[in-house]
Write a structure and sequence with these properties.
By secondary structure, the chain is of the alpha+beta class. The chain has helices at 6-18, 27-39, 99-116, 193-206, 253-260, 285-292, 333-352, and strands at 45-47, 50-54, 64-70, 88-90, 93-95, 124-130, 151-156, 164-168, 170-179, 183-184, 212-213, 217-218, 220-228, 234-235, 238-247, 267-270, 278-279, 297-300, 313-315, 330-332. Strand 1 (45-47) and strand 2 (50-54) form a beta hairpin. The longest helix is centred in the C-terminal third of the chain and has 20 residues, at 333-352. The model has no long low-confidence stretch (mean pLDDT 95).
């Protein structure tokens, strides 16, 4: 069944692809989205480059579902053989930067919102097309949380092949400093901070966090950057390294940091404690809906705007995460069409379980 809003969604996606919208530079695509809704006489709230719309019969006494995806993109890589800003359809594939991540998801959610817009449902719907997702920026979804009512569930559009990510890893980036003592490299003096840091790095390479997640497995810690020394004949008195910690729902970011801190020589300073892991509560009704509709569930290792949402959220959308940020990015038109239908079925079933 083809949704009546499918063709409008495809036209909108093509217009978005034509318009560069790198993170922090989404003003033009925000204007496109703003005008898309205004042409349909749907009131819009624009907050910086974030666009919010509510269903026609929004009622504060009803619970609310948030439909969210982003309209920013990464920059195209050097491997592109097609113009990343020229939307082309070839053998059922729509090519273009942001087509898969996450333009297809965004327009599918918009078509879903339009389907329910003038229906008086048991739930309110708010659609938020947000900015700065690719950099987890503070002017994206985090900046509009104060504009939202209490959210019963957020459906976050990311390319998952319409499987449901019911849990997602968070991100903790830690800057570590190991101190030594400077000296002349030709003499037996000083304390080499590089050698001191080696003990930490070997420990990190083999470390297993104590708690494990049902959906996400183990929290993963990786040393990704290292810097030490000023010149060849001076014993370095400090060594700096950076840790990338992918934290499961078995830990808060603070708990993960607390577990590793006493085990390392370095002084550890987290860059941020914003990007939390997430998991749908075991008693949430969406899990029953997913089971009824035979939608597969999994835990996602990749970060999304879920990390910034202080309410239950589910990541699901058309497209394939493996295509994200790749050269000659594309999404199948059939994926968008089936995605719209699947979103509508998901919401209809959710409304019925209220």
């Amino acid at each position: 069944m083809t949704s009546p809003d499918y063709h409008a969604a495809i036209d909108l996606l093509k217009e978005l692809i034509k318009t560069p919208s790198f993170s922090k530079e989404e003003d033009q695509t925000a204007e496109i989205l703003n005008n898309f809704f205004l042409k349909r006489k749907i009131p819009v709230v624009r907050s910086q480059n974030n666009i919010l719309v509510k269903n026609k019969f929004f009622d504060d006494s009803k619970p609310t579902i948030l439909l969210n995806s982003h309209h920013d993109t990464v920059k195209p890589n050097s491997g592109y053989t097609r113009d990343p800003f020229n939307p082309q359809v070839d053998l059922g594939k729509l090519y273009g930067l942001g087509s898969n991540d996450a333009g297809g998801c965004l327009v599918a959610l918009i078509a879903t919102f339009l389907h329910f817009y003038d229906q008086d449902c048991s739930y309110n719907l708010i659609l938020a097309a947000t900015a700065e997702e690719e950099i987890s920026g503070k002017n994206g979804v985090e900046s509009i949380l104060n504009l939202l009512p209490k959210i019963d569930l957020a459906i976050v559009g990311e390319p998952t092949q319409m499987e449901a990510a019911v849990a997602e890893k968070g991100l903790l980036v830690v800057d570590a400093t190991v101190k030594g003592k400077a000296g002349h490299a030709a003499r037996e003096e000083g304390v080499n901070a590089i050698y001191e840091a080696l003990d930490d790095l070997l420990f990190i390479q083999n470390y297993q966090f104590e708690r494990e997640s049902r959906y996400l497995g183990k929290t993963k810690i990786t040393a990704t950057l290292i810097q030490a020394g000023t010149q060849h004949n001076v014993i370095p008195d400090s060594c700096n390294y950076t840790l990338d910690v992918r934290v499961t729902d078995a830990y808060s970011l603070e708990e993960a940091l607390e577990e590793i801190t006493p085990k390392l020589k370095a002084n550890l300073v987290p860059r941020s404690l914003r990007l939390n892991s997430s998991k749908i509560p075991d008693n949430h009704r969406i899990l029953k809906v997913l089971k009824t509709l035979n939608i597969s569930q999994y835990g996602s290792p990749t970060l999304s705007d879920q990390a910034l949402m202080p309410f239950p959220s589910l990541k699901i959308g058309p497209g394939d995460s493996a295509r994200s940020h790749s050269a000659d990015e594309f999404i199948y038109l059939s994926e968008i069409e089936s995605g719209i239908n699947s979103y509508i079925k998901l919401l209809n079933q959710y409304f019925q379980t209220a």
